[in-house]
Amino acid sequence: MDREKLHIMAIGAHIGDVELSCGLTLAKHAVLGDDITTVALTAGERGAPPSIPVEEFKELNIESATEFANMLGGDSIVLNYRDGEVPENEDIKFEVCDIIRAYKPDVILTHWKNSIHKDHITCHRVVVDAHFYAALQHMERELPAHWAKGPYFAENWEDSHEFIPYVFVDVTEGYELWYDAVRKLWLTENSPWFKYLDYYDALSRTRGALIHKERGETFMVAPSQMRTVIDSF
After folding, report:
1. What are the start-end ranges of the H helices in the chain?
2. Helix axes 175-182, 54-71, angle to 10 degrees
3. 54: closest CA among 21, 20, 92, 83?
4. Which residues fall within 8 angstroms of residue 212, CB to CB, at 6 or more apart?
5. The Cα angle at residue 124 between residues 129 and 225, in degrees rounded to 5
6. How far apart are CA 128 and CA 148, in angstroms?
7. What's the burial of 198, exposed, middle or buried (CB within 10 Å: 0-12/13-18/19+)?
8. Which tens digit of pLDDT belongs to each residue from 94-149?
9. pLDDT-derived band of residue 193, with 50, 70 and 90 as boundaries?
């Protein structure tokens, strides 16, 4: 059966956030022939190890995010906010609004509202408002209004407080592509603080088992959406 081509946009606070927490979903849709865009508000440069200068690490991360997106046949956008200092103001909300209007995604993925990282919390609020602004017909910007499904909130170990898996996505089909692409990020296998690849690899198997699939990813939705029936995108 023919299906409509989709455009999935994932917006994270730092490079690595969406590639790890919802990268399997992105990879699945890439395999299906859909368009993929990743957006990072910061380059995650302050996660640099002692052996790599912060500015050098920033460039390394940007290159890695581009490589990840390219492997999925998509685009990577990295905004120039400083890691740890993402602001919550109208400027950044309209900047993200304009990106949504320019790229016209069908679905938006981002952070859950609670986190141990302040940038993740701020990113959640920015994206929720930017999604709203982008859809408003009478919010006058350079580009016309655009509405996307979501936002759907990805499962992230740093954002786990009150996260309840609500939407389960079978991502078995995208696993191999994701596994190869996500290893392009330094953080994935080299972080001395957390075993990112091991965690998200194991989590995908666990979530997959709950829906009788090899691999799965889960998403939370806004409380208002929990009263409706939501099909997997």
Report:
1. 17-21, 23-31, 54-71, 90-103, 118-135, 175-182, 186-190, 196-210
2. 160
3. 83
4. none
5. 75
6. 11
7. exposed
8. 999 999 999 999 999 999 999 999 999 999 999 999 999 999 999 999 999 999 99
9. confident
Q: What is the dihedral of CA 11, 14, 16, 22, to 10 degrees?
A: -30
**What is the homologous superfamily of the domain 7-227 according to CATH?**
LmbE-like (3.40.50.10320)
pLDDT tens-digit profile of 6-53?
A: 999 999 999 999 999 999 999 999 999 999 999 999 999 999 999 999
Q: Kindly report whether the global pTM for this prediction surpasses the value 0.90.
A: yes
- What the block records as the tokens of 126 is 């920015």
Amino acid identity, position 1? M
String of DSSP letters for 46-92: GG--TTS-HHHHHHHHHHHHHHHHHHTT-EEEEEEEPTT----SHHH
Q: Tell me how far apart the alpha carbons of residues 199 and 196 are, in angstroms, rounded to a whole number.
A: 5
Within its chain, how far is the Cα of 191 from the centroid? 20
pLDDT at residue 192, as a whole number: 87
- In the numeric block, the tokens 């939705």 are attached to 221
C-alpha distance from residue 178 to each of 25, 49, 99, 182, 200 (Å): 9, 24, 24, 6, 11
Q: What is the mean pLDDT of residues 56-76?
A: 98
Give strand pairing partners of 14.
42
* 3-state DSSP assignment of residue 150: strand
